[in-house]
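[Meeting: bench + compute handoff]

Bench side (C.D.) handed over the final construct sequence. Compute side (W.E.) agreed to return the predicted structure before the next meeting so the bench team could plan truncations. Sequence as handed over:
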Amino acid sequence: DKGGGDTPWGKKFAFDRPEVQEYLLDACRMFLDEYRCDGLRFDSAHNMPDWLNSKICNTIRKEFPKASMSAEVVPEDPKFLRDGVGFDAVWLHAPTFDLIDGVSGKHEHEEWVAKIRSMIRQRWFPDKAAATGINGLLGTHDQIGCRKNGGHGGDGRLRR
């Protein structure tokens, strides 16, 4: 077994192997060069070693200086941004759950208005530019089928 261990989604790559690192870099190059994508979103970047995320970001940035690179990390952490690990932006999950709580009546009106304002403003990394956080208020596959049962309430249903 040359894998890097188990995850809830299956075997983890053996990230320390040079051929795995080159495979990941080649996949990035393919999307940016052959498919002409203008950026990449790294899913579950927190499950990859920081040194490898940095290596990929630095290599790709040198080869494709205009490419944008964003990361999904849980919990949201500014260390993954350019002056740390190296991503241009971090996907923010919290606004979706704030929206779910607000629509479900969990918050009083004044608190709900403040939450809406904070979803628009940058509250997670206030010392960074607003563009370093990607707000997806309507949710993605990460919120719909997340390990938090798709929201709050424990019955596995996304609150509407």
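W.E. noted at the follow-up: The radius of gyration is 18 Å. C.D. will use this when planning the next construct.
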